[in-house]
Design brief:
This protein is mainly beta. It is built from one helix and eight strands, in the order ββββαββββ. 4% of the residues lie in helices and 45% in strands. A hairpin with a 3-residue loop joins β5 (57-67) and β6.
């Protein structure tokens, strides 16, 4: 999958914030769908996009990343929009960065288990 992603220089995202790792119990957080936009040229950072409006969430708070020799599974976790809150007609999309412990290389990139 890494060959299909746009490649950006690692230096161009070095100072950008990464999603915080979410470990253990995750009360109140929901996994959301994401799209892989790009990877860095050192193959150690993924840039993922989330449409907050479509996913019905107010804020992305972190991610869980599980890496194996043949796959990288990512769960992006967010706070759901409270029931009754108004929604917008305009899509609100954001990009988020996730660092890997080893290069993506030819490993499959997939959503986590939720």
């Amino acid at each position: 999958m890494s060959g299909q992603l746009r490649v950006v220089p690692a230096a161009s995202v070095r100072q950008r914030a990464r999603l915080d790792p979410v470990l253990g119990d995750r009360p109140g957080l929901v996994p959301v769908a994401w799209h892989a936009y790009a990877r860095t040229d050192d193959d150690l950072t993924l840039i993922l996009g989330v449409d907050l409006t479509v996913e019905g969430v107010t804020r992305v708070v972190g991610a869980t990343v599980v890496e194996t020799s043949d796959a990288v599974m990512v769960d992006v976790l967010a706070l759901p929009r409270p029931l009754g809150d108004a929604t917008t007609l305009a899509a609100i999309s954001r990009e988020f960065l996730v660092d890997l412990s080893a290069p993506l290389a030819d490993r499959r990139l997939a959503p986590g288990s939720g």
